[in-house]
Amino acid sequence: MSAASPGRRASVAGAAVLLACLAALLLMPLGVDKFYVQLVTKMMIMAVFAMSLDLLIGFTGLVSFGHAAYFGVAGYVLAYAAPQYQAASLWVSLPLAMAVSAFLALVIGLFVLRTSGVYFIMVTLAFAQMLYFVFHDTKLAGGTDGVYIYARPDAALGEWAGGWKPFDLENFVHLYYVVLALLVLTWIVLRRVLDSPFGRVIAGIKVNEPRMRSLGYATFRYKLASFVIAGTLAGTAGYFAAAQFGYVNPDLLGWHLSGSAIMMVILGGMGTLGGAALGAFMMMLLELLFQGLTKHWQLLMGCSIVGVALLLPHGLLGTVAAWWGRRATTGDTERTDG
Amino acid sequence: MDFPTSLIQLLNAVQYGLLLFLIASGLTLIFGIMGIINLAHGSFYMLGAYLAFSLTEGLGSLWLALPVGVVLSVLFGLALEWLVIKRLYARDHLYQVLLTYGLILVFEELRSILWGDEVHGVKVPEVLAASISLTENLNYPVYRLAMSAVCLVLALGLWWVIRRTRLGMIIRAGSVNRDMVQSLGIDITLVYRIVFAAGVALAAFAGMLAAPTSSVFPGMGNQVLIICFVVVVIGGIGSVQGALVGAILIGLVDTFGKVLTLEVAGFQLLPQLSGVTVYLLMAVILLWRPEGLFGSHD
């Protein structure tokens, strides 16, 4: 009994914290300024991005340093799909952006998954950089400067629904709730994926790939599937980021964003979805804090990254969980003693 | 393209390739021997270029700046290894990537604080400022030839140290079995420190050499870093020969990608997409030999 109860108590506590966070996010726009609503919208978009990377780093054991590629390319898809000064249809451009990032992840995955370990890190970085140069050097979409997206995607349904418009993304509160829904949906999808037999296999691959292969699993295909799912979700986040910012430029697929995403995952605690989301929120808050302090805020950010890598390998959530676990265990010991 | 132009481009390609080799050899050695993936390696190249700029201004000539710069960068490498890098040996690649990414931000911002964000130039030493004329109106600068020669000498020196000296023997042994070397009474931590500092010095030296031709500007390290990753992936991680072959290949592909024109169905591919060619080369080599041209299979 004492073995099961700390785990169950922790998961009950986890669920309570999660529900509290959700409630806070649901109520937040009612009480704060536009600035904060937009800030949290951006944070939630980054949280989706970080969770998608966590599927690779934390759950499949694939350290991708090129995850921004899918994020940025999906943004460019939205820019292309929008006619000048007019809005693209959400119901056409979003699936299109997701499909393009999925296809891109599939093609890149076929190459990069032939390698492993440190090669994988370098090669994912190199492929992302290749795409960066495609957008940076050519006139495909504005070169270095990128392009503006003058209108956010239009959510109006087709003729069959009488052109009914369930929400308006130009309204910042509507955008907030749509992105919140996306965050919750991403969480549910990833939770389902991880709890499925597929999730067990990728967890096995993370721990010991040769053993999974000798058990008869075609590990390459599982890794590729995980890579494609992560790429698609990153693309979804990138689509909404482009919609919110109102522009796309090559930096959206640059390696600084890929590096920040790794930082988000580790800062929060890799291998937990909540950790990745928490990391994204914390990272954006840190950025805001440092930018307020000095124009050389990157120095502070760099030092924090070094500090997290050295001192917080399990991230905030992992450290708290370990502390909680220790407390729960000592609590049990005392009870058995008494 | 006529012959003199091709010759000039060929010389440029080899010179660029050899320069990349200096940087990539440090990267591949640090990985092969110490097992560290070092994203901050490009920053050492940048450090070298900025040192060349400041020291040439202060001391009056690049000839004096080079030895002083090398000494400073060795000291910098030793300090960095002792302060930060040594804590990474036992850690997963993920943390090495994260930490060295953080270091890039730190170095880039320190550069901005110390030197500002302007683009600087470094004067070519007078002895080497001449040009050799190939035809009436095509010249090739002597400085670039000298650069290639220096890089070649260093490449040979590197080969000699690794293959023909006692230190090289220890380094090679250390890359195969760290514990065994240590149990033979050799201080492996000292060997690691030397290798890291040597890698830093090589990259910084490359930066100093390149400063007069490429100018000195913010972000120059990152540009070169990613190309060096491609070099290392093509050559095989840990292989110095591989780095040399990979670097020359990249030099050729990159240089000729920028000067040749290629149109397919009315759409200009080259030189418009020249930034992409080196990555395509990498993709092809990955399909053919995922472990790189000179990589081992394990």
Radius of gyration of chain A: 21 Å
Report the biggest beta sheet of chain A as strand number plus sense, adding barrel if it closes.
2 strands, antiparallel
- The percentage of residues in β strands of chain B lies in under 5%
Total number of strands of chain B: 4
* Strand neighbour order, sheet with most strands of chain B: 1-2
Your description of this structure?
The complex is a heterodimer of chains A (338) and B (298). Chain A is mostly helical and 338 residues long. Chain A has a domain at 31-254. In chain A, 75% of the residues lie in helices and 1% in strands. Chain A is built from 13 helices and two strands; from the N terminus they run αααααβααααβαααα. In chain A, strands 1-2 form a two-stranded antiparallel sheet. In chain A, helix 2 (34-60) packs parallel to helix 6, helix 10 (255-268) runs parallel beside helix 13 (315-337) and helix 11 (273-293) crosses helix 13. The longest helix of chain A is centred in the N-terminal third of the chain and has 28 residues, at 4-31. The radius of gyration of chain A is 21 Å and the shape is globular. Chain B has 298 residues and is mostly helical. Chain B has one domain. Chain B is built from eleven helices and four strands; from the N terminus they run H-H-H-H-E-E-H-H-H-H-H-H-E-E-H. In chain B, the strands form two sheets. In chain B, strands 1-2 form a two-stranded antiparallel sheet. In chain B, helix 5 packs antiparallel against helix 8 (188-214). The longest helix of chain B has 32 residues, at 3-34. Chain B is globular and about 65 Å long. Chain B starts with a helix and ends in a 10-residue tail after the last helix. The mean pLDDT of chain B is 89.
Walk me through the topology.
The complex is a heterodimer of chains A (338) and B (298).
Chain A: H1 4-31, H2 34-60, H3 68-81, H4 90-112, H5 117-137, E1 147-148, H6 172-195, H7 197-207, H8 209-214, H9 219-245, E2 247-248, H10 255-268, H11 273-293, H12 297-311, H13 315-337
Antiparallel strand pairs in A: 1-2
Helix pairs in contact in A: 2-6, 2-9, 2-10, 2-11, 3-4, 3-9, 4-9, 6-7, 7-9, 10-11, 10-13, 11-12, 11-13
Chain B: H1 3-34, H2 41-59, H3 62-83, H4 93-115, E1 131-133, E2 139-141, H5 142-164, H6 166-176, H7 178-183, H8 188-214, H9 220-235, H10 240-259, E3 262-264, E4 267-270, H11 274-288
Antiparallel strand pairs in B: 1-2, 3-4
